[in-house]
Design goal:
membrane, three-stranded antiparallel beta sheet, 13 helices, eight-stranded parallel beta barrel, about 40% helix, about 350 residues, single chain, TIM Barrel, alpha/beta, pyrimidine biosynthesis, 13 strands
Length: about 350
């Protein structure tokens, strides 16, 4: 029904406007008695064989929602009714910021892709924390995990970026199950420079030190770009081993435009969706093989079918996340993947 009736209508409108409309619609229908139960019945696959235990956490199933969809933790309760085993909110920054000027989100329908140059638009970490204090009873009972994706404000120079990440880490600590350090978005000026070995090692060690002060340290993962060279990926493996962080999310959006056919292909920003399928899988396989599977990997990028998901898991991913595939294929994709796993 989604692909036949709902998506064609949604795709007639501006992507960012329809995103906000969808949020409002999901909030509204989830307030109608029995609708949340109906959605859970339609999309949730309950089976202990789907459970995955990583870095001390048990995921009800390995299919999560990637960061960027619910930036401000406005809809995680409702999204939890659509079958996800975990929902990652963010990217959050210490201070609220509007992001880049609109128009900044583009559908590439012929490529089954999206280009975004949002620029970490969010209401600030404190506003998100207010919402994270109010998980629904159903959300808590079903054990859906929440990840906190953190970044730096646009105006914060890279030399001071570690302070921004610490602010977000400490603010979110009591309300998320794991953290993701985002240094790989192409839409914040100079952010990707923090992926270089020296600044990245320093940033992760500082966060590990902050984490060690807590009574119950939380897992910290690093989200990397798909555009890194083999040499840079070897540096990532060395950094993970050196800093002892808990895992890697591969991958973020790409700045590559290889093979695109859409007339919007030259828009600046990060590309996600089907064109990223093979490259993100290559990065997962490289990390898994070259590290001898030394750390967990969450695979994301171009998952539009159950086959795409299985390929990422076969390449070495322990969990997967959806974003653009969820927009193009609808919530049934989550159920389809879990059914295929069984």
């Amino acid at each position: 029904m989604y692909k036949l009736l709902i998506r064609p209508v949604f795709f007639l409108f501006d992507p960012e406007k329809i995103h906000h409309f969808t949020f409002s619609l999901l909030r509204f229908i989830n307030k109608i008695p029995l609708i949340p139960s109906l959605l859970r019945g339609l999309y949730i696959v309950e089976d202990s064989r789907l459970e995955r235990t990583l870095f001390g956490l048990t995921f009800k199933n390995p299919v999560g929602l990637a960061a960027g969809f619910d930036k401000d933790a406005k809809l995680y309760n409702e999204l939890g009714n659509l079958g996800f085993g975990f929902v990652e909110i963010g990217t959050l920054t210490p201070k609220a910021q509007p992001g880049n000027p609109k128009k900044r989100l583009f559908r590439l329908k012929s490529d089954k892709a999206i280009i975004n140059r949002m620029g970490f638009n969010n209401g600030g970490v404190d506003e998100a924390v207010t919402r994270l204090k109010k998980p629904s009873k159903s959300f808590k009972e079903r054990g859906i995990l929440i990840g906190g994706n953190i970044g730096k404000n646009k105006l914060t120079p890279n030399e001071e970026a570690v302070n921004d990440y610490k602010v977000c880490f400490n603010a979110l600590y009591d309300y998320v199950d794991y953290f993701v350090v985002n240094v790989s978005s192409p839409n914040t000026p100079n952010l990707r420079e923090l992926q270089d070995k020296e600044p990245l090692t320093k940033l992760l060690k500082e966060l590990k030190s902050e984490n060690s002060k807590k009574q119950n340290p939380k897992p910290i993962l690093l989200k990397i770009a798909p555009d890194l060279t083999d040499s840079q990926l070897m540096d990532i493996i060395a950094i993970v081993n050196d800093t002892k962080i808990d895992g890697v999310i591969a991958t973020n959006t790409t700045i590559s435009r290889d093979g695109l056919t859409s007339d919007k292909k030259d828009e600046t920003g990060g590309l996600s969706g089907k064109p990223l399928t093979n490259r993100s899988t290559e990065v997962i396989r490289f990390l898994a093989e070259k590290s001898n599977k030394a750390f967990p990997i969450i695979g994301v990028g171009g998952i539009h079918t159950a086959t795409d998901a299985l390929e990422k898991l076969d390449a070495g991913a322990d969990l997967i996340q959806l974003y653009t595939g969820f927009i193009y294929e609808g919530p049934k994709l989550v159920k389809t993947i879990n059914k295929a796993l069984l």
